[in-house]
Specification:
Layout: H1 3-23, H2 28-39, H3 48-55, H4 58-66, H5 81-96, H6 105-130, H7 149-166, H8 169-189, H9 199-207, H10 226-245, H11 250-272, H12 284-307, H13 311-321, H14 324-333, H15 336-350, H16 353-377
Helix pairs in contact: 1-6, 2-5, 2-12, 2-13, 3-4, 3-16, 5-7, 5-10, 5-12, 6-7, 7-10, 8-10, 10-12, 11-12, 15-16
Amino acid sequence: MSASQLKRLIIEVVIMVSNNTNAKKRLASVDALRGFDMFWIIGGEALFLPLFALTGWSLFHFGHGQMQHTPWHGFSFYDLIFPLFIFLSGVTLGLANKSLRGRPASERAPVYRKAVKRLLLLIILGVLYNHGWGTGIPADPGEIRYASVLARIGFAWFAAAMIVWHCGIRAQYAITAGILTGYWLLQVSVGSLTQAGSVNAWVDQYFLPGITYQHRPYDPEGLLSSIPAVVNALGGVFAGRWLARHSGNHKRILQGLFAGATICLLTGFLWHWVYPVNKELWTSSFVLITVGCCLLLLGIFYLLVDVWHWRVFTYFFSVIGCNAILVYLGTSLVNWGYSSSSLFGGIADALPEAGGVLLIACGVILLQWLVLRFLYRRGIFISP
C-alpha cells in the first residue's frame, strides 16, 4: 500500500466514523463510561502513589496496586481497562440493533466496506502505537509488532458486527457460549496454562507475523486470545440491545444490567477455581469476570448520568470518551509529561517531592482534557 493510498484510507475512515457517531443518538452514560475508562490511560493511574506519599492513607496505596496489571493468574482493576473498551464498542452495536439478513447485496456491500476499512485502520494505527515514542516503525517487516490493543478492538468489533448483522438473537447467545466453552476446552486440553507451554504461545510462534510483545513466547494481544475477546464485544451488544429495548424504563434497565453483572461475576468466580482468570491468555473465566464488571459499571453510570443527571461528572468524562481513539493514540505519540513539566515544572520544584509529582501528573491530564474539550465543543467526535 502506497503512502497516498494509506492517507486516503485513514481520511475516509475517520470521516466515516465521525459522521456515523454524529448521526447516531448518543447515550450520555456510554460516553461518560468510555471517558472514565480512558481517564486511567491518560494519566489517572499516576495519581495514587503521590497521594499516598502525601497522606499516608492506605486507600491510595491500595489504589496504586490496582493500577498494575496482574502478572499472570488473578485480576486487578487495571486489567479491566482494555476489556471495557471492547465492551463499549459492542454497546454501540447493540444500541443500533442493525441486521443485514435478507437485504440485497447492493445494500450490504457499502456496510461491509466501511467495516473492513475500520478494521484495517485500527490495525494500522495499532502498529503505529506499538512503535511510538520516537522509535518509528522498523524497516524490516519481521521486526514489526502487528498485534496490538487497537487491532484486537478492531477484530472483536468486526467479528461481533458480522455475528449481529447475520445471526438471530438465539444464535448470538449460542455463539457466545460456544466460544467460551470451546476456548476453555482447547486451552486445558492442549498444552498448559503457562507462558511458554500454552496453546496461545504455540499459535503465536507459528502463525503470528513479526515480533511478540517484549519478545515473549506469546503475545498478550495475539491471534488465539483474540477469539474470546469477541465475547466481550458481544456482551456489550446484549447490554446495548437491552438499553434500546427498555429505553426510558430506568428501573427495568438497571435491574437487567445488575442481574447480568451478578450472573457473570458469580459464574466467572466459580470457574476461576478450575480455569484461572488470566488476562494474558484472555481465559473464558477472565471474559466473564470482565463482562460482569462492565455491566456493573454501565449500570452505575446509567444511574448517575441518565437517571440522576450528574452534569459536571458527565461533562468531564464525556469530553474524554467522545474521542477515545484519539486519546489512546496521543499517549503513544505525544510526550504529555514533557509538556506538563514545561508549564508547571517551576511550581512543582518548589513543592515537596510528592506534591510536585502530583502536580505534573494532574497537568498531564489537564492538557489532554483541554485539547479534547476543544474538539468536543466543535462537535468533532472520532471514537470506536
